[in-house]
Amino acid sequence: MQAWRVHRNGEPSEVMRLEETDRPVPGDGQVLVEVLAAGINFPDALLCRGQYQVRPPLPFTPGVEVCGRTADGRRVLATPALPHGGLAQYVVTDEAALLPAPEALDDAEAAALHIGYQTGWFGLHRRARLQAGETLLVHAAAGGVGSAAVQLGKAAGATVIGVVGGAGKAKTAAALGCDLVIDRHTEDIVAAVKEFTAGRGADVVYDPVGGDAYAKSVKCIAFEGRIVVVGFASGTIPTPGLNHALVKNYSVLGLHWGLYNTKDPQAVRDCHRELTRLAAEGTVKPLISERVAMDEAAAAVQRVADGTSTGRIVVLPSGAAR
């Protein structure tokens, strides 16, 4: 089969190679899945760079989420077992972790509904306890993770402020339903949030960026606000001043969605049922910016690494991009 493999760490476009290799062999409790669509996530770039919290042995195949088909014909969502990731024609995954692909979504959309939307749902509902009528601030609102949080925030009845970088991404965020879009390249985030909320600030901040985004967030967080730390796409991990959290009465909440697969897998299944319902209603629909063929995957991972993409890029290993 064909699979993208990484033999040394570095930038995705430099270290990913498309190779012919053997199909992975399922172990106990695992199943072989034919990949129909593989979503590209920022962790794929970090895996290539050797900077992710999980460091699979070299060589490995990136790709942390797929929509695929089992040998008995089930269309499923899966998180492949590294080092045999999803940028391949076949993957192995734990049978117990398979989720039914939503019928309302095509293969690419279904793949993109998985990690980003699960992360958004757990971050907003399980960790931050977002309530209808509250104000939600989403950083990188036009990206794969941020666009999911915007849609889920609107579905929860929140007023959503989206922060983006550039005019093109601002248009994307507005189309997603943001009530206010802030272009960090040309606008003052703190001033804009305070003006929009009449000085109150944001009740919940969803931050997959870290760095300066986090620094600006603590300056416009509301009384008893909650900042959900999802990742550090900026490359800079903040060092929070806990004295500041104390005097302003806000909370900093960490979210590593993958832990729920081992600590509370039933919660993952319950979340998937809710996401499937929202997709069937049309309340959420993954933003697929590109559907690329297998041989374009390395360049696509690099675009995600560079922060130039919007929404989710999906690789279609089984046929031409459409």
Main structural class = alpha/beta
Q: pLDDT below 50 for ≥5 consecutive residues: which ranges?
A: none
Q: State the share of residues found in helices, binned by percent.
A: 25-40%
Strand content: 25-35%
- Total count of helical runs of at least 4 residues: 12
Largest sheet: 7 strands, mixed
Could you tell me the radius of gyration in angstroms? 19 Å
The 3D shape can be described as: globular
H and E order? EHEEHEEEEHHEHEHEHEHEHEHHEHE
> Would you report the number of β strands?
15
Question: How confident is the prediction overall: mean pLDDT?
Answer: 95
What distance separates the N and C termini? 21 Å
Write up what this structure looks like.
This protein has 322 residues and is α/β, with parallel strands linked by helices. The protein is 33% helix and 25% strand. It is built from twelve helices and 15 strands. Strands 3, 4, 5, 6, 7, 14 and 15 form a seven-stranded mixed β-sheet that branches. Helix 4 crosses helix 5 (144-155). The longest helix has 17 residues, at 265-281. The protein is globular, with a radius of gyration of 19 Å. It starts with a strand and ends in a 6-residue tail after the last strand.
